[in-house]
Design a protein that fits this description.
Elements: H1 2-9, E1 31-34, E2 41-47, E3 52-60, E4 67-73, E5 83-89, E6 96-102, H2 105-108, E7 123-130, E8 143-151, E9 158-166, E10 169-170, E11 173-174, H3 181-184, E12 187-191, E13 196-197, H4 201-232, H5 242-271, H6 278-299, H7 309-337, H8 344-396
Antiparallel strand pairs: 1-2, 2-3, 3-8, 4-5, 4-9, 5-6, 7-8, 9-12, 10-11, 12-13
Helix pairs in contact: 1-4, 1-8, 4-5, 4-7, 4-8, 5-6, 6-7
Length: about 400
């Protein structure tokens, strides 16, 4: 199953070209670099004698009415605090415009619209052109080149680059960009002198894939399977206590694998400053805590003759089912976070989960059939005993 999910999570169509270009429409640059997301790239020439940086950013539109932006964050590698240049079609003339914006926390939380204002960095010049010249039009997939010349802080050659793109612009206010994994990871720290990036995106992507596979298998498949064994196998007398050991073994294994996946998720959060998945994170913590409570409950399991056994069983069932539901919901949330909402990986998981649900339905129907049959037999036995008693009473009289 691990290999199955690994194959489904791999996407050859997502691989982008490792080649960049130093030739733009207006000039040629000394160095270039492919950026890790959105098939974007950047070329630049750095002048150490006056700490001046001439650059061009290559990006693509995803909508005829959308926007493409590039910027730098003077302090940290995150979206909040970025000084950005955003290009989009003018709502009045339809011509390409490039305006400066400051990305502050209120904009990130969507409390206020993003309004253009002068930047507080030493920006010498900026412009934008579409690939194809004056006859080019803005459409889905149109390539744009954003030019900028800025003066860096002396003896500081590392810059935090942030780039993204969106679907709509309201007036002159770009709306929020998509929230797929690639869109939320469009950040890189680049040394313009050595042309090296400090963040290895491939390692982060590998961790994301491992995190998704481990949690899908543990919280999304094994935990429900363990619950199924406890509900339906315990009534088979021929198994004896085997069902309990199998149930405990599956649940403990699922929690162990899920704990590793949870730890990888925490590490991913540390490696992705500025990237926050609020709902996914909260559901993950809730499922992990409930799973821990279930594990501890195993240590305090009273004997079947104890007065508190019925209260323990109620607690165990409630927490267990809540953990299963939260785990499954969070697996689906994880697919959306990773941008796998329409992927074969999600389809494979849905088929696996559907199989488990189908088995549950079949066992549930069979259980009710057996229950009704036994109830009918008991009723007939009671009626037979009553009839026999009445007959005996009549003979004595």
């Amino acid at each position: 199953m691990l290999v199955f999910f690994l194959l489904l999570f791999s996407h050859p169509h997502r691989a982008f070209s490792a080649h960049c270009t130093t030739v733009a429409a207006t000039k040629t640059y000394e160095k270039c670099m492919m950026l890790p997301t959105q098939q974007a790239s950047m070329a630049w020439t750095f002048h150490p004698h006056n700490a001046t940086l001439d650059l061009v950013f290559f990006g693509t539109f995803i909508s005829p009415s959308g926007w493409v932006g590039w910027g730098i964050n003077p302090n940290t590698p995150e979206m909040t605090g970025t000084r950005a240049l955003i290009a989009f079609p003018d709502p009045n003339s339809g011509q390409l415009v490039l305006l400066p914006y400051m990305i502050d926390p209120t904009v990130k939380l969507q409390r206020t619209p993003l309004l253009s204002r002068p930047l507080d960095i030493h920006l010498l010049s900026s412009s934008a052109t579409l690939y194809g010249g004056k006859m080019a039009t803005i459409h889905n997939g149109a390539t744009i080149q954003i030019y900028a010349a800025l003066k860096l802080v002396p003896n500081k050659t590392r810059i935090h680059c942030v780039w993204n793109r969106g679907l709509y612009v309201q007036g002159y206010s770009p709306t929020i960009h998509p929230t797929t994994a690639d869109d939320l990871s469009s950040i890189a720290t680049i040394d313009v002198l050595s042309a090296s990036a400090s963040v290895d995106h491939n390692n982060v992507q590998t961790l994301k894939t491992v995190h998704g596979i481990m949690n899908a298998i543990s919280w999304g498949i094994m935990l429900p399977l363990g619950t199924v064994t406890a509900r339906y196998l315990r009534h088979i007398q021929a198994l004896g206590p085997t069902w309990f050991y199998f149930h405990a073994g599956v649940q403990l294994s699922a929690y162990f694998i899920g704990t590793v996946g949870f730890a990888i998720g925490i590490r991913l959060g540390e490696l992705s400053p500025g990237v926050t998945y609020g709902l996914h994170r909260k559901l993950g913590f809730a499922a992990f805590c409930l799973g821990g409570l279930q594990t501890l409950a195993l240590l305090f399991r009273p004997k079947s003759t104890h007065n508190f056994r019925k209260y323990w069983k109620s607690y165990h069932h409630f927490v267990g089912y809540a953990c299963v539901v939260l785990g499954i919901v969070n697996v689906f949330q994880g697919f959306e976070v990773m941008g796998e909402g329409r992927s074969y990986a999600k389809l494979g998981y849905c088929l696996s989960l559907s199989t488990v649900v189908g088995v549950c339905m079949a066992l549930e129907v069979n259980g009710w059939v057996v229950f009704c049959r036994k109830a009918k037999e008991e009723k007939m036995k009671r009626e037979g005993l009553v009839s026999g008693y009445d007959k005996d009473s009549g003979s004595h009289s």
